[in-house]
Amino acid sequence: MNLTDRKSHFEFGENWRDYAKTVDRHRIHQAVIGLQKLFPDGLSGQSFLDIGCGSGLHSLAAILSGASAVTAVDIDENSVETTRQLLDRLAPGSQCTVRVVSVFDLTPEQYGRFDIVYSWGVLHHTGDMWRAIGRAAEMVKPGGEIAIAIYATTKLDAPWTLEKRFYSSAPTAVQWAIRQGYMAAWLTNKAVRGYNPITVLRQYHDMRGMNFSHDAHDWLGGYPYQTASADDLRSYFAKLDFEEVRAFALPRSLGLFGSGCHEFVFRSRS
Q1: What's the CATH class of domain 6-154+225-268?
Q2: Using alpha carbons only, what angle is made at residue 23 by residues 18 and 28, rounded to the nearest 5 degrees?
Q3: Cis amide leading into 224 (omega within 30)
Q4: Residue 209's pLDDT is what?
Q5: C-alpha span between 110 and 115 (Å, rounded)
Q6: Structural domain boundaries of the chain?
Q7: Which of 38, 109, 202, 221 is surrounded by the fewest CB atoms within 10 Å?
């Protein structure tokens, strides 16, 4: 199986297409806040490349944050069409380009370089994460920045990889049953730790405008799947001549209910 082949990937685009139906003013606002966390000085006048655009929500957030031009790409045609429809509806007349392109096919010669390259929770699903990160970094202008979110390494990476491989090819009814069990266990764990599950669900969309059910589906089916430690990411970008600008790194964990993402912003020195 060639893990870099679109046919071997979980159907992320179908999930994002369904999620896009839930996008409202509050979710858009939270997505903008998520970008402000990474880029507190804003994006005014900057070109923005969104690699793995998904629903298009964060391309929209970039436009609303002042980006002068946005290019959104994804390997999944459903994601591209969903992004195009979202931007046409909520940012008509903005300077946006949306294309079906794999990160492995991005080249500065064909697409130019960008002030900001953004890829949140994507490159660990490409089947060749480190090569994908390197290719994304090539798209950054000298002095420009790249923002990435990569799954943190956990002690349960191996069993989660097996689960994802099974789930991604399982019948819809089986996926539904696994998803309900996972969400129930996740909420039970929150309750045991003293959180009110109802409050947790109500506040879930405050996390970058996401949705619990769609996130669970994305997590359980997210195959291919790779992870990295914060130190490995720092070391890799240092070799590419990037300096760390901002970091939201996670501590090592068991990973019983999955893995969160290390978030980094790096700036090109050359």
Answers
A1: alpha beta
A2: 145
A3: yes
A4: 62
A5: 16
A6: 6-154+225-268, 157-221
A7: 109
